[in-house]
Known about the structure:
The complex is a heterodimer of chains A (336) and B (213). Chain A has helices spanning 5-13, 33-39, 45-48, 50-62, 77-81, 118-134, 147-155, 157-165, 169-193, 211-228, 245-249, 264-271, 283-288, 292-305, 322-333; strands at residues 68-69, 86-87, 96-97, 139-145, 197-201, 233-236, 255-258, 276-281, 309-312. Chain A has 336 residues and is an alpha/beta fold. In chain A, the strands form two sheets. A seven-stranded parallel β-sheet of chain A has the order 1-4-5-6-7-8-9. In chain A, α7 (147-155) packs across α9. With 213 residues, chain B is α/β, with parallel strands linked by helices. Helices cover 56% and strands 10% of the residues of chain B. Chain B is globular, with a radius of gyration of 18 Å. At the A-B interface, α8 and α13 of A face α4 of B.
Amino acid sequence: xxxxxxxxxxxxxxxxxxxxxxxxxxxxxxxxxxxxxxxxxxxxxxxxxxxxxxxxxxxxxxxxxxxxxxxxxxxxxxxxxxxxxxxxxxxxxxxxxxxxxxxxxxxxxxxxxxxxxxxxxxxxxxxxxxxxxxxxxxxxxxxxxxxxxxxxxxxxxxxxxxxxxxxxxxxxxxxxxxxxxxxxxxxxxxxxxxxxxxxxxxxxxxxxxxxxxxxxxxxxxxxxxxxxxxxxxxxxxxxxxxxxxxxxxxxxxxxxxxxxxxxxxxxxxxxxxxxxxxxxxxxxxxxxxxxxxxxxxxxxxxxxxxxxxxxxxxxxxxxxxxxxxxxxxxxxxxxx
Amino acid sequence: xxxxxxxxxxxxxxxxxxxxxxxxxxxxxxxxxxxxxxxxxxxxxxxxxxxxxxxxxxxxxxxxxxxxxxxxxxxxxxxxxxxxxxxxxxxxxxxxxxxxxxxxxxxxxxxxxxxxxxxxxxxxxxxxxxxxxxxxxxxxxxxxxxxxxxxxxxxxxxxxxxxxxxxxxxxxxxxxxxxxxxxxxxxxxxxxxxxxxxxxxxxxxxxxxxxxx
Lengths: 336, 213
């Protein structure tokens, strides 16, 4: 196998042949102030303009040296298309929802021209630009929100979780079912636009809900979603999910992107034979507040544990020092 | 009486919000002492909830619905207390710091503190240092609780403490902090009095901070 960035990532996603070294990948954002400055592109332009989006994604490969490019930095693209008011933030602040249109669990209105909405179209266009620039050389990652995360946006996180506690299971399932087609349509369109792999972020996180909630309410939906999307998918769920790794492995995704709170060795031991693993450098203490040496050490730990693709555990803090991100790349270039 | 207190406690622990009103009415009519209802049923229940959450036996949905049940109960009981019988264990001013709009963790801390008998003023999310100082001056809380979910907003906590020092308010209020990226080390580093990893720990800390005052 030729050890190009593209090949290393694609092979790692199926736990396949190892090239010269493990790949460095970022299913979630690696944008920090340093990268914005070097790329000459800043937020919020990079959430709203396809060229700015693609340029910043390319910087992740060209300046940092990651083997992937991923052009979607917010988690609000679908929410905006579904009618949420979104504050797109600024250089120092990630976007956020300003309202929850389905707080009362009224039927979700999915627009017929969903993929034509500006916040969706911009991602598809950015993926096409990336395809033209680095297609076949660097792995292009798309990103969609799963129906659980979309429910947080449409109904409000606390409200959604309270309804679960109140035993309103049918309400919850109905909202997830109404939002599932959004995830499927956007993922398929991203593959058509040029993505090699798509991340599905669905925050049934360890800090919020239990494995039993995931198993009852979300796992069947994930299984349906993965059955309807042909291309490879990476599931992203933050928090300590040590107690539900086996459930994620049954969801039908190719890989799981996980946090430092889940020990890399434990994750590989539990599910490494079933799905590939991506992660899991600690953001707050190591990438943000640590030194390049700390980052290097964690990355090497992940490599030694058998994590298939090495990268930050989640979207990185904007003030992360750029040297710390480069230390991940340095660590994978050491080889296995 | 023990049996009915135990029953009410179970209703709150189990988040059976539909049953709380009728059960409390029955207890009140049966002459059960209000303080026993609050201390041995409601507060005791939220201690169990906090403990189960900390041990990973239950998660946020269950905790939210227990808190809702407790709130419904307190709404019935509080008006019955005479003014001088206020059960407040102390007062807490809570907020999520500037630049951060995440509030579930903070809300859970607020609910648990109320459940434990504290008087809580919740300023909400994205609060500037200036507003926090103004409110401290106005309310004079025993404890200030600061929350942040984002690593980018952690430094705001330090700013609040620096400004408290600069305005001579630091000695008047204990500061406890929490949130996903926060650690005990960070709390020590910025000069906070305590760090709580979850809502149950926040209650334990608030109890110890007010006990030592």
